[in-house]
């Protein structure tokens, strides 16, 4: 859905955000969004690695039983 926005749509969204939040709040809002995305990405990596570890454990248990 976001891939169809294009440059004019992105500029319009930024102008509306600037009008709503003002020039002083916009950097704070951007920083908060960036930190949220960073934490989400970190959590996703951690969850993925946990699942992969469990799969590897299950594979090794299955091989040892045979």
TrEMBL record:
Gene3D superfamilies documented for this protein: 1.20.5.3310
GO molecular function: protein transmembrane transporter activity
Main location as per UniProt: membrane
Protein topology in the membrane: Single-pass membrane protein
GO CC term, one of those recorded: TAT protein transport complex
Keywords, ordered alphabetically: Cell membrane, Membrane, Protein transport, Translocation, Transmembrane, Transmembrane helix, Transport
One Pfam family matching this protein: TatA_B_E
HAMAP family referenced in this protein's UniProt entry, alphabetically: TatA_E (MF_00236)
Protein purpose: Part of the twin-arginine translocation (Tat) system that transports large folded proteins containing a characteristic twin-arginine motif in their signal peptide across membranes. TatA could form the protein-conducting channel of the Tat system.
Name under which the protein is recorded: Sec-independent protein translocase protein TatA
Organism whose genome encodes this protein: Anaerobacillus alkalilacustris
Gene name linked to the record: tatA
